[in-house]
């Protein structure tokens, strides 16, 4: 593919039913009312010169390059700010406007360094293009007048430079930062000739509020804001459209290359999830793919204390197959299993679970989604009938009240957060339910109406109390409930009980009853109320109950089945949705169908041959328990770092040490690889070919930007292991795997690589009834028929604060880092998050004699670690917070074995802990049953 | 291991506590149904061993549920 340039219509689309018809240079065109003359002209095929306008931003009308003449109107209006009126006749090329445009360009060029030939944007600069378009041949003002040519460069950001000498003060960057990203980090300082762009109050980019999303760089028409990779490598020459492999937003990007070298990732305007926006991870943090730490050769060893030695693929694959079979011969078919990865493609995940079911002959397959969103799958299936979010991201633009529960979208799902913030700036109301004062609670032009700052572990009590208000204050949408739901009366009787009232639970939750009542009314009375939630809901001992509680609340208020409403999980990793869809759970075949269902098993048996087991297999935590018991001895870990990401690490490492064979497939020798006997090098997302499914069920293509550096695709390796074990598995192309998935999964029957190439992306269900996919689910009826109300009684967690461990630790993530950090730590993103930090309230710090920046010990009953303290009033007293991006801290050394009652999703969000100034000579003693584990780091 | 309670007992107790709002017999059936649907057979076998051995700390609803699991 050559370099892809999406058309720029100059001003945003104005969708709407009413239209107007105009003529541009004699060409008739009909456009929606409110469309600018510039956009109408572009639609008619006439490009009007422009500098300050671009179609991702509202028109500003400052450069006056886009002037036109309109019959019957005086003067030369700017076409970007002039809306079309019916019958208008526009002339874009008259001697008058041509002269004006040349004058404008002359002024710009006289204050611009004329180093085009050596400028990094040479050939990709709108100023240069426009000088050509308007026919500029001379500059009369001379270059020796007052100018900005000596202005100093700002190179503080690791990924892009700011060279103010080239700035034309068009303010596209300022508007992009506000309108698109919603950060408002940039301003234009000064007036007239003196006006200049500035991050914050004369700060550098790095010291400002900038979150390095890249929107300003993309909007800049000159080389003033320029990716450093372009400065270093030159302008790219070809593009491959692909999907970001970081978070569950699933942004589409153009990977732009020069020859075979990746120069930059540019967000793709036609991307359904991101519509041309990005965050710092997808936009810039791809350097890990070519990092020298990457392993490219398979390696084996007999014992985990032996050194690794490199082998050829055949030997590595043969070793895995032989040793797995030997374990089964000695300990039975159920003694081995696999963990699939939410970072891998659907096709890769599908072949891993197929290998387990068909070649291993058991159901011991689980996915890392176990530790994040398994309660979503359970809870939404029980209530709505489908284990997935109800909306597309676009839907947020129709919401009137947005409730964000246990999620921190500006850090975790930044591009979706930008879409949400845009809606909030337009006037939608916001309710935040979170123990921590996340940025969204108060940020530029946004303020939450209600922040319910609940105590960790009391989600269910809060959601029940909200539903109590809805039921007892007659706010129920009776017609919706009567027509579309079941089991309402029983539930309503339960929820109306006095023990569920806001007043009764405020002691437990810490949320003032009046505030909770007001929030419940706001949500219930909104024309469209939408719920978005994250791991702060699921990673609890009552995660599944909470998911059902939110579903109950949404149904009671009729907030399901149309634009602007819904119950929406914000998924952590890029392919959490997909890995669950593909049958990675030990009790479910692809498409969420239970293994005990004879009819479903028959479909797969006919296709795969052999007999499939009707009993569920082991889930990840069960695998660890069984390993310690000695009944589980061989594990294939696909692209996951369970020895860093899973809770109660002492237990995990004991389990891994007890295994006879651990096979790790990953890009890097990760923490888990320390316990491995075979290491299989993986392919980065730039080398993968397949699909990812994002949080809105959108199936996006991931296209190979380069060949696998290891010589093999991961689906190939898995197929070869299965074949070496005596179960023939072979595919020529990942498209064949998708065809197989479509042939056995009712929600995927219409999906194929051809369809994805045609439509760009598609949201499942995609089948005969919905050939182009399903943006909104449960429209006329729920997937299970009637939506089911489920009684959700509040059961406190077993994890209790004690005198010895009086604080509650909750964990989370930050914008610049991703999961265990294996990728982002190997990029320039470390500039923002060099280490994990413990946030604690000033009061909790003071009574412990802790100052900002001190090293502290964080201990729970299972282990302890050391990290730096940050004093912050975002936290309520009694609650501390940290991230788990760095292995050296090993925050999961302290998290416990507690888990969601229904799915075993670990309770990361609640651990009783103590914090003290670090005194290496005096570690906090763990309780008698505890394992005083001090992590040594790498 | 950090927990003194065996994993199967801890997990079964958690399920029982969360389904405990149902009438006793219904709760026992629901617990058994949940365990049957989501637990590997070897975990169910271990749970039976604990129930048969009358280990301390098992929720009575779990003991009742075990009958439905056989
Ligand atoms: S990179 Fe993003 S956040 Fe930073 S100044 Fe540019 S638009 Fe604003
Ligand atoms: S930095 Fe670029 S986008 Fe911003 S005002 Fe200057 S030229 Fe325009
Ligand atoms: S929001 Fe998520 S998918 Fe989009 S660029 Fe950032 S990390 Fe990638
Ligand atoms: S493009 Fe219209 S005024 Fe700048």
From TrEMBL, chain A:
Q: Which residue intervals define the domain 4Fe-4S ferredoxin-type in the entry?
A: 158-189, 202-230
Q: Is this entry keyworded Acyltransferase? A: no
Q: What GO biological process term is on the record, naming one?
A: formate metabolic process
Cite the SMART domains for this sequence: Molybdop_Fe4S4, NADH-G_4Fe-4S_3
Domain of life, per the record?
Bacteria
Q: Does the keyword Transferase apply?
A: no
Gene3D superfamilies hit by this protein: 2.40.40.20, 3.10.20.740, 3.30.70.20, 3.40.50.740, ADC-like domains (2.20.25.90), Dimethylsulfoxide Reductase, domain 2 (3.40.228.10)
Q: Cellular component GO terms, alphabetically? A: membrane
Q: Which residues form the 2Fe-2S ferredoxin-type domain?
A: 18-96
Ranges where the 4Fe-4S Mo/W bis-MGD-type domain occurs: 237-293
Q: Which residues form the 4Fe-4S His(Cys)3-ligated-type domain?
A: 96-135
Q: Which UniProt keywords apply?
A: 2Fe-2S, 4Fe-4S, Iron, Iron-sulfur, Metal-binding, Oxidoreductase, Repeat
UniProt-recorded Gene Ontology molecular function terms = 2 iron, 2 sulfur cluster binding; 4 iron, 4 sulfur cluster binding; formate dehydrogenase (NAD+) activity; metal ion binding; molybdopterin cofactor binding; NADH dehydrogenase activity
What NCBIfam families would the database entry show? Fdh-alpha
Q: Which family does it belong to?
A: In the C-terminal section; belongs to the prokaryotic molybdopterin-containing oxidoreductase family.
Protein name listed in UniProt: Formate dehydrogenase
Give the taxonomic lineage as stored in the record: Bacteria, Bacillati, Actinomycetota, Actinomycetes, Kitasatosporales
TrEMBL record, chain B:
Enumerate the Pfam families for this protein: FdsD
Return the protein name.
Answer: Formate dehydrogenase
**Organism, as annotated:** Streptomyces pseudovenezuelae
